[in-house]
Amino acid sequence: MPTVSAGNARVHYREDGSGPGLVFVHGTGFGSEGTWGHLVEHFTDRRTVILPDFAGCGETQDDGGELTAELLAEQIAGVIEEAGNGPVDLVGFSLGSVVAATVAATRPDLVRRLVLTAGWSHPHDEYLRNHMTTWRGTKGDADAFGRFGTLTAFSRTFLNTLGSEQVEGIIKGNQPTEGALRHIDLNLRVDIRELLPKIQAPTLVIGCTQDATIPVELVRELHAGIEGSSYAELDSGHVVVFEKPAEFVQLVQEFIHQD
Question: Which residues form the AB hydrolase-1 domain (predicted)?
Answer without folding.
Answer: 22-250
